[in-house]
């Protein structure tokens, strides 16, 4: 079972998670997949359609049609709920729809059993520990919780009943206590992936069984083995196969037909192909209107994988970076494109996040301490910036969830706000405070929809500073000491020493900012990376 993508890998994004194998799930299975096998994420926030308020003189509600790329049709399609005016059945939440979002945990399968035996731990205890870690990661990334979160072990009865239906419809067969789906008896097999039956191979998660009628047949029920959990069934003691779990639980909570199903592109075949086959074999009216899949994560332009030893876990990343910096990094690439994970790009995202929050915090402070007149209309140029942000955001998100474009749409308003806050010309502008307040409000809406709005700008800035100090392996006390040394050197006209101190701190991502009230510091790109970025622009 998987979640449809709203913004990007984790979102809810995207999705970075603790998998059934533990809290150290690599980003290629977590961040690059919505969901990874067994888990899915919600990266967006439920909200009313974004629009400028009438009080600001900009356009009121004017929503665009949402278009999504459908893997099944291999083209973008206008999203239309299966039942207009009613709850949208999908693994997703976005726009102004009432959503029932389902995310399941597979708490028993071959790899869980193998890992538990390796650790000498009960499989269900292991699964619970991992799922708890996963939920912690999701909370750190500000992913909204699902409507319901079922576990396989609690739904074995539903799984057995679905297998019975498939057998009754002659799309499965029993062999020695195992039950296999017969792909030869389902002519539509391959319509999602575009594969022909002759091209298909057995799923990667199971060894080829010579008892199969076709090598592509897959297990619906597995006979019990020594040392494994099992349940009674009409075919003897055993446990569910992987694919059937998702079909049974989605049917139980969403019905046999619903709107959107999503996941990583590696799940298209065999997992999602098998889900379609077994769901329709159980109920001929079963339909999922939209299949949404996202691209993979590479590391330094190489495929991220455990075998290559280049995987990175969410838990490891957020030791050094703010979780929302990771989220912003992920949102910076369209969900269907591969995303290249590098420390340099993560640093860029962290720096951009700090700039955004600092601008909004400065705006918040000045508007709190000075009286503004909200009764008069805003200047025309401010209204234009608000309308432009509105249009670019709405257009990009409605066009197959282009979060990277939505993020870029904030650049100009943020620059305008900084001009109003800090430049001589900006400070003289008519309706300055009102303009700042209105711009901050609109950017806040965008951040909220993308799951990037912190509970407090001030707290988020301090957390970003703390992470920067950790990456630099330096304490704030030492930074203050370096600032004092540099101030003394400047007073003594020892400018070479002063420059050396600045460069020393800049090299590890600590930028010194000179102002009328003295010198302060902020996180920044480490100097070599900043120079590389500037060289590309």
UniProtKB/TrEMBL annotation:
GO BP, one annotated term: cysteinyl-tRNA aminoacylation
The protein's GO terms of the molecular function aspect are: ATP binding; cysteine-tRNA ligase activity; metal ion binding
| The keyword Lipid metabolism is annotated on this UniProt entry | no
State the EC number(s).
6.1.1.16
What is this enzyme's catalytic activity, as reactions? Answer: tRNA(Cys) + L-cysteine + ATP = L-cysteinyl-tRNA(Cys) + AMP + diphosphate
* UniProtKB keywords: Aminoacyl-tRNA synthetase, ATP-binding, Ligase, Metal-binding, Nucleotide-binding, Protein biosynthesis, Zinc
Matching CDD domains, A to Z? CysRS_core
Cofactor(s) for this protein? Zn(2+)
GO annotation, cellular component aspect: cytoplasm
Query: Residues in domain Cysteinyl-tRNA synthetase class Ia DALR?
Result: 392-461
**Family the UniProt entry places it in:** Belongs to the class-I aminoacyl-tRNA synthetase family.
* Protein name as catalogued: cysteine--tRNA ligase
């Amino acid at each position: 079972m998987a979640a449809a993508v709203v913004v990007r890998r984790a979102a809810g994004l995207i999705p970075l998670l603790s998998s059934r194998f533990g809290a150290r799930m690599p980003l290629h299975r977590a961040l690059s997949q919505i969901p990874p096998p067994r888990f899915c994420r919600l990266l967006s926030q439920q909200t009313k359609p974004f629009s400028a308020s009438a009080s600001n003189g900009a356009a009121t509600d004017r929503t665009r049609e949402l278009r999504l790329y459908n893997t099944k049709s291999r083209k973008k399609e206008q999203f239309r709920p299966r039942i207009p005016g009613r709850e949208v059945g999908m693994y997703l939440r976005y726009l102004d729809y009432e959503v029932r979002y389902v995310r399941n945990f597979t708490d028993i399968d071959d790899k869980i059993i193998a890992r538990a035996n390796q650790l000498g731990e009960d499989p269900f205890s292991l699964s619970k520990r991992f799922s708890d870690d996963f939920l912690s990661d999701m909370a750190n990334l500000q992913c909204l919780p699902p409507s319901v979160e079922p576990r396989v072990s609690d739904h074995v009865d539903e799984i057995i009943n679905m297998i019975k239906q498939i057998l009754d419809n002659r799309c499965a067969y029993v062999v020695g206590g195992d039950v296999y789906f017969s792909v030869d008896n389902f002519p539509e097999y391959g319509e999602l992936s575009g594969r022909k039956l002759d091209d298909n191979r057995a799923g990667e998660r199971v060894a080829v069984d010579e008892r199969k009628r076709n090598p592509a047949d897959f297990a619906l029920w597995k006979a019990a083995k020594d040392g494994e959990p099992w349940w009674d069934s009409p075919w003897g003691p055993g446990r569910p196969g992987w694919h059937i779990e998702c079909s049974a639980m989605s049917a139980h909570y969403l019905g046999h037909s619903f709107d959107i199903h999503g996941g990583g592109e590696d799940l298209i075949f065999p997992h999602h192909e098998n889900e379609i086959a077994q769901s329709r074999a159980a109920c001929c009216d079963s339909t999922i209107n939209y299949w949404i899949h996202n691209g993979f994560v590479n590391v330094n332009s190489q495929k991220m994988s455990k075998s290559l030893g280049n995987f990175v876990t969410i838990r490891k990343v957020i030791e050094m970076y703010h979780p929302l910096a990771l989220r912003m990094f992920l949102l910076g690439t369209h969900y269907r494109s591969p995303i290249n994970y590098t420390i340099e790009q993560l640093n860029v995202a962290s720096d951009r996040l700090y700039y955004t929050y600092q601008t909004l915090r400065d705006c918040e402070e000045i508007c709190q301490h000075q009286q503004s007149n909200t009764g008069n209309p805003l200047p025309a140029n401010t209204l234009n910036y608000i309308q432009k942000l509105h249009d670019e955001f709405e257009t990009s998100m409605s066009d197959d969830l282009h979060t990277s474009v939505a993020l870029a749409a904030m650049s100009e308003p943020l620059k305008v706000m900084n001009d109003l806050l800090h430049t001589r010309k900006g400070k003289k502008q008519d309706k300055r405070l009102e303009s700042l307040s209105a711009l901050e409000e609109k950017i806040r809406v965008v951040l909220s929809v993308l799951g990037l709005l912190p509970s407090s700008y001030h707290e988020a800035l301090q957390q970003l500073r703390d992470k920067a100090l950790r990456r630099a392996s330096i304490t704030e006390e030492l930074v203050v000491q370096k600032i004092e040394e540099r101030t003394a050197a400047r007073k003594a006209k020892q400018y070479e020493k002063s420059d050396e101190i600045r460069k020393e701190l800049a090299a590890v991502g600590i930028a010194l900012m000179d102002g009328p009230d003295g010198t302060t510091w902020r996180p920044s790109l480490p100097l070599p990376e900043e120079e590389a970025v500037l060289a590309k622009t």
